[in-house]
Amino acid sequence: MCGIFGLVLRKGRVAPMILDGLSRLEYRGYDSIGVAVINNGVLQIRKDAGKIKDVASRLRIAEMKGSIGFGHTRWATHGAPNMINAHPHTDSKGKIAVIHNGVIENFMELKQELIDKGHNFISKTDTEVIPNLIDEEMKSDIGITEATLKALRRLKGSYAVVVLSSLEPDKIVCARQESPLVLGVSENGTYCASDAPAIRPYTNKVIYLRNGELATIDVNGYKIIKVADGSAVERTPEEITWVLEMAEKQEYPNYMLKEIFEQPTSLRTGLRLQEKYVDLLTMFLDRGKEVFLVSAGTSQHSCIAASYIFSKIARLTTYPVVSSEFTEQYGSTVGIDSIILAVSQSGETYDTLKAVDHARMRAATVLGLTNTVGSTLTRVSRAYIIQQSGPEIGVAATKTFTSQVLVLAQLAMRLAKLRGKLSQDELDEYKESLYKVPDIVESVLKETYDKVKDIATREKNSRLFLFLGRGISSATAMEGRLKLLEITYIPSLAYPAGESKHGPISIVEKDTACVFICPRGDTHAEIIGSIMEMKARGAKIISICEKGDTDIKSLSDEVIEMPKNIPELLSPIPYIVPMQLLAYEIAVLKGLDPDKPRNLAKSVTVP
Ligand code: M6R
Hints:
Layout: E1 3-9, H1 15-24, E2 32-39, E3 42-49, H2 52-59, E4 68-74, E5 89-90, E6 96-104, H3 107-116, H4 129-138, H5 144-153, E7 157-165, E8 172-177, E9 182-186, E10 189-193, H6 196-199, E11 205-208, E12 213-218, E13 221-226, E14 232-233, E15 238-239, H7 255-261, H8 263-270, H9 275-287, E16 290-295, H10 297-314, E17 318-322, H11 323-330, E18 338-344, H12 350-361, E19 365-370, H13 376-380, E20 383-386, H14 399-419, H15 424-459, E21 465-469, H16 473-488, E22 492-496, E23 513-518, H17 524-536, E24 540-546, H18 550-555, E25 558-562, H19 572-589
Parallel strand pairs: 16-17, 16-18, 18-19, 19-20, 21-22, 21-23, 23-24, 24-25
Antiparallel strand pairs: 1-4, 1-10, 2-3, 2-4, 5-6, 6-7, 7-8, 8-12, 9-10, 9-11, 11-15, 12-13, 13-14
Helix pairs in contact: 3-4, 4-5, 8-14, 8-15, 9-14, 10-14, 10-16, 11-12, 14-15, 14-19, 15-19, 16-19
This protein binds 5-amino-5-deoxy-1-O-phosphono-D-mannitol.
């Protein structure tokens, strides 16, 4: 979603740094950009639709003078992506500039009220009401901070808002409600941004704002108060431990490929979870009357995979639920005995946080699994685990999927132990297999990439892909489908293979590409039946199966061979890897940017 970067410097011009900060937030997705700076007390704004590089050079943004300012990348929610709707927006007098991430639900009524009071509006955005509301409040002779507080109290919806005004040219006021905002402090200045990677080149000391908080930043630092009552909040900075290189591309042409190849490392880190948190989450999972696994997109696929692992290893029934449906589907029954395990890479996904809010209101216990320290999910969870995958910049989730499954599998194993559902030998065997997973993924990356490239070249023009798996592999199939669909735009379906004869098979014709996920295990015999059904209709069979699996090979047109002896319940981790590579290769062959698929944002922080 939209990206925000603002700063106040003791020395130096902010404009080049704003452009740098915005480029580090590009992964969030955007269609227009804008920058505002104050120089000699004068507020200047340059903005337009387009890519950061193009707009910046066309409008000569880097040359803007001034040591205080901010920038914004807009992902359109209200109003077309064009210059007028690009942020910053100002009040009618052009003295107060605002950038915003989120959605103001009551903007229509506020706009009408402000028009009646003589304010002019030029954009179609919800954001434009904010500077005008602040201007209206300032008529009662209060400063920009107080006026912003009062204006924010009138807003309904979600926001990270940053305010800059020539009336008080030495400070920036910013606040958050449901959309993320982080502050940074350094010797030379103070920063605010949607996400820590934008600030990381300048400082490793950050402060995560919480919902309902407003901060004033100037060259001396920051002050935080609560929007509701103006009371002061004391919060000291936290240190970011990851280095910037972890979020940069290194030798890879783009982030997605880098992140796919980082998986052996991220999985190794994911095996070093802090025991006390694993124990705490396990204890809650054991106590619940019912356990919901709530998440969106890729995180939902991890949850579906985990539901098989929890059931088979720990004998725990869990309900994976898409977060945007949670309140409708289970909102009236969830209660004090329910456990909600919310899984979200970013920890900021609007739908997931909304579901969590609802569950908390009904006294359910919320647990979190996220990749983002300090995210909203960590703050609203009774207990949480950080999956430790390192920053993921590519919009398509890759390393965070495999880490999520790994962490959830560890929780299932710990629960199985607590419940006495597996013998010590069985537990040791699972543990041994789990610890081999990073090495297995490393060899899959080495051994399958060339084959995947060949298949990508042959299949890049396929008009339709089907992804099919049985048992836990149906989750792997769904994730494979999502990867291909979101970055190559090729229409794709994924189904539990047994379900395909209840409808999807009707679209199969000669040469329809069917990817089958076929690990050895309980579902092996059944998947052979499903392959034969598709083959009989002329489908092109692309199988991912164990080396030496002659039954599958004899039925397939293309085979990607995987290492032997991977337990079926852990198979989603290595078996997704060739599908991540396939999606990546096809996107590149089609000339598409795999890091920034159209219409998508890394973190979906709006309803
Ligand atoms: O940050 P989250 O895990 O909550 O994000 C959920 C989805 O938005 C995310 O997985 C999305 O589907 C990705 N683009 C998938 O690659």
